[in-house]
Design goal:
481 residues; alpha/beta; Aldehyde Dehydrogenase, Chain A, domain 1; Aldehyde Dehydrogenase, Chain A, domain 2; six-stranded mixed sheet; 21 strands; 40% helix; 22% strand; globular; binds NADPH dihydro-nicotinamide-adenine-dinucleotide phosphate
């Protein structure tokens, strides 16, 4: 099946196509996906400027209806669209369905936000003058999204962009184009101006680069790797384009000597191996108090060995394949690196042969690791967890914070004072107490510190900061006649 780009409000083919292959079964080709041309991108950027003005002039209830319809349809079709997502990305079907449902919730949340846009009023310091402070749309927003949450990440950018009156030009990751087409098909059927939302599929280095360098773009929202994020920031600053970026991470889960060990093991297993470890919120460093280290590790290894690796669409699969051959090779290279750094591989970390030919690997647990090893400093994006033993809470907190990333962190403890101290002193954008490092809500801010994030927070009401510009109006009321 051939899939097109959505350019100037029309589905159009490109000069070339790429095949989208199921990582659970390489014999399953999901479809061919058009690669947008440079001219198509320019045309749709021009159209976006006109469409944005028209959209901004819609009443707030009309915008509400559009966003609510998109979200409602996504939630109603979560089973079907989640299956498609899992088929192309490789996450187990329950996670695929959950992602699409959650993506729908971003639209319904921002539907409601269209009605809740309030400004501020003030008296001037000068007599007879009033001040009105309100937010206005920023214009055309370029959205560059990754493959690991192909529908949710795009939705938590597209929904607020539209809510606050902007146009969107979206370049999804080329590894997961089917979910992008499915989402834009829903958006395209709504009561929106032609060209308000565009889909430009293609590689990051070509069409992505052209998009972020364009002076027709007023803001760029990106999620992906740190090196690409830095190159986008450089392009953005050249044009003084507003930019927001969510990038890598190296999240730590601290397990204290007073922790409920079964809870700690469950949090670690879900946090480290959910989505095959391909989450920006994954618990890749497990910082464990030495008093419970051996018991924790024994249960963790037993749990990891018991997890069922398999085809994403098969019932009972807990860990699907990793997304691509390149990702698998990088993961296996990290397993070799771990051995050379002196880490002890207790289980997994190997390629698996399965009935279907896919990119399968077993979840790996490393013990005897130290925080200065590369496996504890670089984002692996793999089903690999590294245990770091510590002698005290203070040392645990130090290790958790000893990273150039800062997205999420967690502590497992029954001690309220420690939990409170950790919550106040962990240098991360999100902190979890007796919860996995992965798993966040849609109505509150999401983002990190250090190399994990740059620019205003995403999600919840914080999104207004990025997707709008503030206008301050002074009104001289004069004297009554
Ligand atoms: P990338 O940063 O390479 O890609 C993310 C998005 O940016 C994709 O849509 C990509 O396009 C696009 N892109 C790439 N280069 C450019 C460019 N020069 N200009 C504009 N857009 C560009 O991440 P990957 O998907 O390749 O993953 C690599 C690593 O990044 C992972 O192993 C992980 O460590 C990290 N990552 C982190 C994520 C997070 O949520 N924190 C999410 C995804 C990745 P395309 O891929 O189509 O070429």
């Amino acid at each position: 099946m051939h899939n097109s780009n959505y350019i100037c409000g029309e589905w159009v083919s490109g000069d070339t196509e790429i095949a989208n292959v199921n990582p659970s079964d390489l014999s399953d080709v999901i479809g061919q996906f058009a690669q947008a041309t440079s001219a198509q991108l320019e045309a749709t950027l021009d159209q976006a400027q006109a469409a944005q003005k028209e959209w901004a002039a819609y009443g707030i209830e009309r915008k509400y209806n559009v966003l609510m319809a998109i979200g409602t349809e996504m939630m109603a079709r979560a089973e079907e669209l989640g299956t498609l997502l899992s088929r192309e990305e490789g996450k187990p079907i329950a996670e695929g369905k959950g992602e699409v449902y959650r993506a729908g919730q971003f639209f319904t949340y921002y539907a409601a936000e269209t009605l809740r846009q309030m400004g501020e009023t003030a008296d001037s310091v000068r007599d007879g003058i009033e001040i009105d402070v309100r937010r206005e749309p920023i214009g055309t927003v370029a959205i560059i999204s990754p493959w690991n949450f192909p529908t949710a990440t795009a939705s938590w950018k597209i929904a607020p962009a539209l809510c606050y009156g902007n146009a969107v030009v979206w370049k999804p990751a080329n590894v997961t184009p089917a979910s992008a087409v499915a989402l834009v098909e829903i958006i395209a059927r709504q009561d929106i101006p032609k060209g308000l939302v565009s889909l430009v599929m293609g590689s990051g280095g070509t069409i992505g680069q052209q998009l972020v360098e364009s002076t027709k773009v007023n803001a760029i929202s990106f999620t992906g790797s740190v090196p690409v994020g830095k190159s986008i920031a450089a392009a953005a600053i050249g044009n003084l384009t507003k930019v927001q970026m969510e990038m890598g991470s190296k999240n730590a889960l601290a397990v204290m000597d007073d922790a409920d060990l079964d809870l700690a093991v469950n949090l670690a297993l879900g946090g480290a191996f959910g989505g095959s470890g391909q989450k920006c919120t994954a618990s890749s460093r497990l910082v464990v108090h030495r008093a419970v280290h051996d018991a924790f590790v024994e249960k963790l290894v037993a749990g990891a060995k018991a997890m069922k690796v398999g085809h994403a669409l098969e019932a009972g699969t807990q860990i699907g394949p990793v997304v691509s051959e390149q990702q698998l090779n990088e993961n296996l290279a990290y397993v070799d690196l771990a051995a050379s750094e002196g880490a002890e591989l207790l289980c997994g970390g190997a390629r698996l042969e399965m009935p279907h030919n896919g990119y399968y690997m077993s979840p790996g647990v490393f013990a005897g690791t130290t925080n200065d090893m590369r496996i504890n400093r670089e984002e692996m994006f793999a089903p690999l967890a590294c245990v770091i033993a510590v002698d005290s809470y203070d040392e645990a907190l130090h290790v958790v914070n000893d990273t150039h990333f800062g997205l999420t962190s967690g502590i497992v403890t029954t001690n309220l004072a420690r939990a409170t101290h950790f919550r106040r002193n962990a240098q991360t954008g999100c902190v979890m107490v007796n919860l996995p490092t992965a798993g966040t809500d849609y109505h509150v801010p999401f983002g990190g510190r250090g190399d994990s994030s740059y620019g205003p927070r995403e999600q919840g009401r914080s999104a207004a900061e990025f997707y709008t510009v503030v206008k301050t109006a002074y009104i001289a009321s004069g004297q009554p006649a």
